[in-house]
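User: I'm writing a short report section on ligand binding and want a predicted complex to refer to. Could you take this sequence and heme C and write out the structure as tokens? A short remark afterwards would be nice.
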Amino acid sequence: MKKRSLLIVALIVGMATLFVAAGIYAGTEVKDEFEMKGDYKHKKSIVNFTHKKHNVDYKIGCGECHHVDKDGDGKAEPLNDLKMGDAVQKCMECHKKPGEIKGKKAKGMKKPQKREYHANAVHDNCVGCHKDYNKKNKTKVAPQTCKKCHPKKKK
Ligand code: HEC
Ligand code: HEC
Ligand code: HEC
Ligand code: HEC
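Assistant: Sure. The structure tokens for the complex follow:
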């Protein structure tokens, strides 16, 4: 019993040290949930993105959403080894164009070209995974429809 509680104390101290270290070297902080606002005018409302839930409860690895283009070859390398406290870039830093392109304007454009637009990249990521997940698990828990993610504007 004693040994065990000592171990637990040691673990807590160890973890606290890690967190402090991460804080000192913090590249970027992230809230448990937040509104995903691009730096542009929005037509639609947006729900909070539950970052922590996705990562912890739904057990989704960082690399499913975060990537870089290290070698500049126009392809994305997933950041599977990303840790809390590492520097992380916002989607908008690379998927720079504001809003969403679709319909006539997007005619003839390939996917990566459309993904230069912030909302196209975000939709491909969020909705893409949700669709696959729902299909695979025969469920609808992961929101797929516009309204579920963009509820009617408040007042
Ligand atoms: C399901 C997708 C998803 C997963 C999984 C995920 N993230 Fe994120 N993360 C995001 C999105 C989306 C943002 C918001 C980016 C933006 O504002 O452009 C974000 C933001 C962040 C930010 C803040 C960036 C900033 O400048 O505001 C950090 C830090 C971060 N994530 C780290 C991590 C780490 C570390 C992991 C894994 C332990 C992880 N994320 C897992 C999607 C995800
Ligand atoms: C450092 C630059 C950079 C950042 C930051 C970035 N991306 Fe990308 N992303 C790229 C590049 C380059 C590609 C490859 C070209 C393409 O397929 O669109 C890409 C591809 C994608 C793809 C296509 C599938 C894949 O993984 O190749 C999606 C979806 C995507 N990004 C969403 C996001 C989201 C969501 C964020 C923020 C959480 C984000 N990106 C942050 C550069 C970036
Ligand atoms: C790699 C897969 C994946 C990605 C990427 C992803 N999600 Fe999810 N998301 C899920 C799964 C799985 C669930 C449902 C889990 C459950 O309820 O059991 C979910 C649930 C949700 C929910 C409802 C429950 C909650 O936690 O709020 C919202 C809203 C949501 N996601 C928004 C987003 C947004 C916005 C993005 C993109 C920024 C995103 N998701 C990216 C897998 C993903
Ligand atoms: C899984 C959640 C999700 C679903 C489903 C979804 N979106 Fe989005 N959408 C987002 C996120 C996250 C952003 C990026 C945040 C932002 O800047 O608004 C976004 C951005 C946008 C934007 C650009 C920003 C703005 O408000 O003008 C438009 C337009 C948009 N979505 C329309 C739609 C439409 C239409 C549908 C249905 C066909 C849809 N979305 C479905 C999550 C979702």
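A remark for your report: Helices lie at 2-24, 51-57, 111-114, 118-137, 146-149. The first strand starts at residue 34 and ends at 35.
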